[in-house]
């Protein structure tokens, strides 16, 4: 049996869509505004904590607890909010697919958020290679490896590509991202 979403049906009937779209948005506006205010307050709280000297974030991944030092207020906040679906994926990988003695390659290691739980899961005989081209992230991975007492992670301060080359690398500290592209769909100073 084929199923079709009500949204798809409504969008294909312009008059009904217009009639329903705007009242829905109008009715939901207060809820979205409250969520936005809560989100901004939490962001402000995280930035304040970081600026007052609290730099360690505790995360639970794959049923294990880890501590991570953040390298900026933005990074501290990002680790707190994370990505729910991303954490579910990592939990699933850690609990169902990563085995003792595996070799894991973590491209874009950031702060070691995933490299460290992978290292714990693969055990002393396994290895994790994490690549982080951005200097702050790379140095933070090294600190977080020590903080979590893992010995089977090799952190490499480089990007990964299909070619051996030197390339310009653009950091966007306001977004805690970096790229080989100077211009992106989300411009940044």
Question: Any descriptors?
Answer:
6 helices; alpha/beta; three-stranded parallel beta sheet; 189 residues; 46% helix
Give an overview in words.
By secondary structure, the protein is of the alpha/beta class. Helix 2 (14-51) packs across helix 3 (73-81). The chain is globular. It has 6 helices and 7 strands. The protein has a 3-stranded parallel sheet with strand order 3-4-5, with helices on one face. It has a two-stranded antiparallel sheet with strand order 1-2. Helix 6 (135-147) links the parallel strand 4 (127-131) and strand 5. The model has no long low-confidence stretch (mean pLDDT 83). The N and C termini lie far apart (51 Å). 46% of the residues lie in helices and 17% in strands.
Helical content stands at: 40-55%
**Widest β-sheet, arrangement of strands:** 3-4-5
Overall residue-averaged pLDDT value: 83
Strand content: 15-25%
Q: Kindly name the structural category.
A: alpha/beta
Q: From the alpha-carbon coordinates, what is the Rg to the nearest angstrom? A: 21 Å
Could you give a short account of the major beta sheet? 3 strands, parallel
Order of helices and strands: HHEEHHEHEHEEE
Stretches where pLDDT falls below 50 for ≥5 residues? Answer: none
Number of helices: 6
Q: Report, as a whole number of angstroms, the end-to-end distance.
A: 51 Å
Number of strands: 7
The 3D shape can be described as: globular
